[in-house]
Amino acid sequence: MTHDTSPTLIPVPAEWARRAKIDAETYTLKYRQSVDDPHAFWAEELKRIDWIKAPTEISDVSWSKDDLHIRWFADGVLNACYNCVDRHLPARQNDVAIIWEGDDPSMDRKVTYGQLHDEVRRFANVLKDMGVKKGDRVTIYLPMIVEAAYAMLACARIGAVHSVVFGGFSPDSIAGRIEDCRSEWVITANEGLRGGKTIALKHNVDKALEKVSGVKGVLVVRHTRASVAMNVGRDQWYDNVAARVDLECPCEPMQAEDPLFILYTSGSTGKPKGVLHTTGGYLVWASMTHEYVFDYRPGEIYWCTADVGWVTGHTYIVYGPLANGATTLMFEGIPTYPGPDRFWQIIDKHKVEIFYTAPTAIRALERLGDAHVKKHSRKSLRLLGTVGEPINPAAWTWYWDVVGDRRCPVVDTWWQTETGGALITPLPGATDLKPGSASTPMFGIQPDLVDADGKFLKGAASGNLVLKTSWPGQMRTVYGDHQRFIDTYFSTYPGLYFTGDGARRDADGYWWITGRVDDVINVSGHRLGTAEVESALVAHPKVAEAAVVGFPHDIKGQGIYCYVTVNQDVEPDEMLEAELRQWVRDDIGPIASPDAIQFAPALPKTRSGKIMRRILRKIAEGELNNLGDTTTLADPGVVEDLLANRKSA
Ligand code: WT7
């Protein structure tokens, strides 16, 4: 995917060097200060937030396994909703906060900061009316409608902790997430809409709640005309309650380290973990990175195409932009509905200036041909961004050439759910670009490379990507399982945060992220643990054993390849294959749909019974002549069969 030498270097366009908030010289100075004197750097940056009580403490961090704690701005008091809404009033009362564009192109609306203030206060009072209290966990399972932002901000306003679950997840996945954080409240909609199809959100919640107890109230936003079953005493329509509550709703003063949200993400083992972000540090990081990475100024139209169900939606649709008083566009639909030019049509319709999307979308749209793009002027665009997975230089170049007409810098932002916001990324007025490279670290970020033994690699090298020091947006713990937090991120290389990614640092000090080095796969920018798919498969009554690996996929980045051994009396056939595919979709959600299922009489194992995933990965990747050492296999014959029956996906 990446080149060893980088022939292309795209210098900062002159007009960007002139107008940008951060030019090359400022970047160097500020970066140095952020690393050499973090106290001074953050004492200045924290002023971007309105504090009820300004912090005097900057950070108190230990990454030692025996005493792991991460605290930023700990004696500060603030409210995140106040910072995203109230503080922009009255000056920006009539400025547009959210542009909503529906799945149906004839549906859109604009919400000003003044209206947002009303809607969020109303929503917060509805939550209070239901019985939601400070510290309660509220599960949000909503489509991309403005109410999703209202719901998140309303939680923040009253000090409740939201846990947004992506609308593409199954009832089982919702149930698991509700159970893990013992959430008593769920906010959903009757239905979602995507690409002209409806999604039975309320029905999914009902099914989830058959499996988990303890939920006291379900609030249902009326989005489509569909009527849905309402469980009396538990379920209420949002609009019914909203009609009877007040507008007045004060912001709850929160300690900087009070939780703001939980967001579940997949790891290399076990169930998804509840990544916990707290209030002060996260908001400083979200606001700072949104401003600098996108060189954002109030009044500009900014569009991040992510879903609020992922961290990108949290930080770069809701919290970052709104903290900065931005106009943020929320799109309910998909890039190819009703036509393959939907993105470009929306850009022209709303005069989008900053556009942030994922490599998988870029590759899919590139494949549909340039004509769909060129049909629209895109002249409002001035900056392009990408996130979620490595972007191959060819896709980068198409984005730059065709979408941006070689005018718009492309910022390839590397980060993770765990990091709260972008950590390695170009700044458009400061960084000369290399197609395919996330380039240089954000302020306060000290990446490095280690080999398998934890030895630091010097100069141009490839290895495992670690971070040496904390930053305000770092996750604080795995909700309810601090030990898992320590084990996952701080035990592989003591004293360092291990990202799970592999990377290369080139001779200019630019970073090239090469992808996960653990058992996490990234399918169309959606993160999945191979262990989750395996556990779904082995739960099927006909399956004895399963091993799941990722393989390179032209559009999705990675695809899901499953090796399945069936029970003795079972004859595997195409029907079973289809059944298993549906089974996994039902268990996790459509994003986990296997691309290939290969039935195997046995899986390659060591003599101690450990599955040799390396071999399975090679076969799935099609690297058949390069399987590596197979002499430690208990039964080398197993590999012959795997090779003979390989599926091309
Ligand atoms: C993993 C994190 C960041 C928000 C969306 C995904 C991969 C993310 C890039 C990029 C190469 C990237 C990494 C990372 N990733 N951005 N610009 N270049 N890889 O968040 O679901 O927590 O996934 O996505 O592998 O570890 P996530």
UniProtKB/TrEMBL annotation:
Q: Enumerate the spans annotated as AMP-dependent synthetase/ligase domain.
A: 91-470
Q: Which residues carry this modification: N6-acetyllysine?
A: 610
Q: Which CDD domains match?
A: ACS (cd05966)
Name the EC number(s).
6.2.1.1
Describe its PTM? Acetylated. Deacetylation by the SIR2-homolog deacetylase activates the enzyme.
**Where does this protein hold ATP?**
388-390, 412-417, 501, 516, 527
Assigned keywords, A-Z:
Acetylation, ATP-binding, Ligase, Magnesium, Metal-binding, Nucleotide-binding
Keyword check for Protein transport, yes or no: no
Where, in this chain's numbering, is Mg(2+) bound? Answer: 538, 540, 543
Instruction: Name what cofactor the protein needs.
Output: Mg(2+)
- The family this protein is said to belong to: Belongs to the ATP-dependent AMP-binding enzyme family.
Q: Read off the PANTHER family from this record.
A: ACETYL-COENZYME A SYNTHETASE, ACETYL-COENZYME A SYNTHETASE 1
Describe the function of this protein. Answer: Catalyzes the conversion of acetate into acetyl-CoA (AcCoA), an essential intermediate at the junction of anabolic and catabolic pathways. AcsA undergoes a two-step reaction. In the first half reaction, AcsA combines acetate with ATP to form acetyl-adenylate (AcAMP) intermediate. In the second half reaction, it can then transfer the acetyl group from AcAMP to the sulfhydryl group of CoA, forming the product AcCoA.
Q: What is this protein called?
A: Acetyl-coenzyme A synthetase
Q: Which organism is it from?
A: Hyphobacterium vulgare
- The gene name on file is acs
